[in-house]
């Protein structure tokens, strides 16, 4: 009887752990890498030639934006 109750208590817990694991996988795909480039400013197609505040990397800046790095290097995000 004791083991039976143990299993019943554990089943929802196991499901929870599995769902949690699934969620983390999903978030991993969406979350940006937490690294920072030496970005002076960025420009995006939506802003035209306007200089936007620096973003750490392409993931945060968005697709089509250009990171203008210190040192005169431009990195286009695609
Ligand atoms: C980067 O972009 C800026 C602004 O458009 C431009 O003045 C500069 O020449 C570009 N630098 C390189 C290395 O392409």
Automatic annotation (TrEMBL):
InterPro entries noted in UniProt: Prot_inh_I20, Protease_inhibitor_I20
SUPFAM superfamilies on file: Plant proteinase inhibitors
Keyword field contains Cell membrane: no
Signal found in the keyword field: yes
Alphabetized UniProt keyword annotations: Protease inhibitor, Serine protease inhibitor, Signal
Signal peptide per UniProt: 1-21
Gene3D superfamilies: 3.30.60.30
Any one GO molecular function term: serine-type endopeptidase inhibitor activity
Highest taxon of the lineage: Eukaryota
Family: Belongs to the protease inhibitor I20 (potato type II proteinase inhibitor) family.
Protein name: Uncharacterized protein
Annotated source species: Triticum aestivum
Species classification: Eukaryota, Viridiplantae, Streptophyta, Embryophyta, Tracheophyta
């Amino acid at each position: 009887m004791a083991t039976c109750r143990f299993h019943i208590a554990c089943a929802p817990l196991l499901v929870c752990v599995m769902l949690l694991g699934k969620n983390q996988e999903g978030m991993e795909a969406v979350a940006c890498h937490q690294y920072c480039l030496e970005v002076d400013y960025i420009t995006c197609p939506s802003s035209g030639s306007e200089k936007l505040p620096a973003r750490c990397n392409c993931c945060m800046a968005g697709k089509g934006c250009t990171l203008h790095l210190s040192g005169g290097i431009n990195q286009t995000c695609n």
